[in-house]
Amino acid sequence: MTQTLHIVGGGMAGSEAAWQAANMGVQVVIHEMRPKVKTFAHQTGNLGEMVCSNSFRSDDDEQNAVGLLHWEMRAANGLIMATADKHRLPAGGALAVDREPFAQTVTENLQRHPNISVSYEEVTTLPDDGHWIFATGPLTSSALGQAIQAETGAEALAFFDAIAPILYADSIDMSQAWMQSRYDKGETEEEQTAYLNCPMTKDQYEAFIDALLAAEKTEFHEGETAGYFDGCLPIEVMAERGRETLRFGPMKPVGLTNAHKPDEKAYAVVQLRRDNKLATLFNIVGFQTKMKYGAQTQVLRMIPGLRDAQFARLGGIHRNTFLNSPTLLDAQMRLKTKPNIRFAGQITGVEGYVESSAMGLLAGRMAAAEILGQDLPEVPQDSAMGALIHHITGGAEAKTFQPMNVNFGLFRPVDGLKGGRRGRKDRYKAYTDRAKTVWSEWIRSFT
């Protein structure tokens, strides 16, 4: 078989799609515009570069839908998960990675694969023939975005994705901060002390909120609107929704005991997570921000323990585009008006590294099967990947379609189980057991 699969975009989804298709015996060309054409958020030309958090979130495959996605990707010989496991950092029950060696390893594995080549140039049109996957992500170039709009006859939707600041560990005052995972979560001492905590009194919290609300913010360009995704809200937007919002969100003080003052209950706690294996860098958890740089340093240094903080990267904000997939894509993620083109990753309306990679995995396998003339069984809806792809290709309401993380709300109910909070543990275990069974059967059916 000599037909080539072209994949536009070398992020999480594009990298995973290329790996899956190449392992099925298809020749793949990855088209990546970086480093020739840069973006606001990317720092390198590496494939699989992480631009926001360094976390793949929960790794619990029995009680968490994201952890279940991890399990399914591992079962499918996923490149992204194998690389994440190789460069894993302590993060309690989460899967966090050392981002630079992670991207380097993804790049090396793809470049070494005999069925994969990489072409570094910008693709600005939607081809009429050939086999293509567009996995250009939230930072799709302006020219390509215009081509997509022209083809679909509908405007691409947009929200704004904010990036959390990263600071140097040796600039943190450990006489005020301490290391502890919430509720001491994790099986080893390293996991149980994976997060750095900065406590706040009520007065300190109120002063911080005042400064946050008054800080100078990044302005939007004319014609742009701020339709944020709720899973990645800037801290200023959360504060604007109510003075206590942050204290019940990323700054919640529960499950933590101040090692310096064990009898004193913090009113709020700012958590930082290790950002590299050397533990020289920490990112502020949940602190995506659109404050201007000068304001960021002033406001963030109000946090106890961060008075003398030095920042390796300040936060930022960028435009994030995605398709109205329920109206534009078929069940195999093909563009209905150009079925030689598939879309994958965050541009399809999934949110997060894991979800984007998962959609890349499916798109790569679907495209490879089509090229090879194979009948690919339908992705089982009761798997995590099936729940996601069903949501974006028809299960969601098109009129209100917004980016979605994987969650058990997308899963079909299991008969005979209790609803509500009390039955949640048994219900989630039933979801994951069922998903593992059907996913394993799906993988075996064509491997």
UniProtKB/TrEMBL annotation:
EC number, UniProt record: 2.1.1.74
Family of the protein in this entry: Belongs to the MnmG family. TrmFO subfamily.
Gene Ontology CC entries for this record: cytosol
One MF annotation (Gene Ontology) recorded for this entry: tRNA (uracil(54)-C5)-methyltransferase activity, 5,10-methylenetetrahydrofolate-dependent
HAMAP family: TrmFO (MF_01037)
Chain's role: NAD-binding protein involved in the addition of a carboxymethylaminomethyl (cmnm) group at the wobble position (U34) of certain tRNAs, forming tRNA-cmnm(5)s(2)U34.
Domain MnmG N-terminal: residue ranges: 5-374
InterPro entries: FAD/NAD-bd_sf, MnmG-rel, MnmG-rel_CS, MnmG_N, TrmFO
Protein keywords: Cytoplasm, FAD, Flavoprotein, Methyltransferase, NAD, NADP, Transferase, tRNA processing
Any GO BP annotation: tRNA methylation
Species lineage: Bacteria, Pseudomonadati, Pseudomonadota, Alphaproteobacteria, Rhodobacterales
Amino-acid positions noted as binding FAD in the UniProt annotation, renumbered to this chain: G9, G10, G11, M12, A13, G14
Protein name in the entry: Methylenetetrahydrofolate--tRNA-(uracil-5-)-methyltransferase TrmFO
Cofactor: FAD
Gene coding for it: trmFO
